[in-house]
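S.,

As promised, the guanosine-5'-monophosphate run. Input:
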Amino acid sequence: NMCVSKDLEFFYFVQQWPGSYCDTKRSCCFPLKGKPESNFSIHGLWPNFNDGSYPSNCNIAQNPFKPSKITDRIQRAQRSWPSLNCAGPKKTANKSSDNTMFWKHEWDKHGTCSGSLDQHEYFEVALNLKDRIDLLQILQNKGIKPDGKFYSVVNITQAIKQATGFEVGLTCNSDPSGNRQLNEIYLCVDKSASNFIECPILPKAVRSCPENVEFPIF
Ligand code: 5GP
Ligand code: 5GP
Ligand code: 5GP
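Predicted complex:
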């Protein structure tokens, strides 16, 4: 087609707090294997441009998600990249999420635009990034725990800045009573997907948190 493509300039590495995804009016579902661990998990690794715009759905027709390409990474992905959306197999007694559908969505929308990374490398790189920064431990070291209490966004951001050197973006969502809660944490990664960097620009979604946010139990 006539698309003019430019090279990606960096990645957002986005992690979600499962307690916040689940503590909403829409609720959530667990994967067939059961409740994920009480830890941040991967939402996605998203190629981006420095002006805040981003490519999506690049070449899905030629490069569709194939589960068989990540069979050797399934166990790690089940642990670090679970889906909590109630869109899984409908025939089971209880509704469940479908990890593979989530991974397919993230690969198709974002992974296909990640330049030189093939599907196996894309998942490998994201899983490795997850293991390099333990956000929950960093927060807990400063007394910021998923206990349903409220914490200052400044303290959360400073704890991560002190431990990693980088300013993060936070997004918030609402629990069923309308309390704002810590939903996602954005870190940035260079275009080779090998080093964390200071974010060239924070996404629009990060203006969604008030001064104090709930950190829900999961
Ligand atoms: P994005 O927001 O990355 O474009 O899309 C996320 C998509 O993946 C949505 O369609 C959402 O329903 C689906 N999804 C499945 N599981 C999850 C999950 O655990 N967290 C999030 N944020 N989205 C999920
Ligand atoms: P999407 O278009 O990504 O499916 O959903 C838009 C928004 O609704 C996102 O913030 C996503 O995290 C949230 N969302 C989508 N599906 C679900 C769900 O099943 N449960 C919860 N709690 N949030 C969802
Ligand atoms: P939302 O509108 O819920 O913030 O975002 C929906 C989806 O759009 C995200 O899950 C992600 O797939 C994509 N998205 C939103 N903001 C950005 C961004 O700043 N950069 C990139 N690469 N994707 C984004």
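The chain has a mean pLDDT of 94. Residues 40 and 134 are 8 Å apart (CA to CA).

- D.
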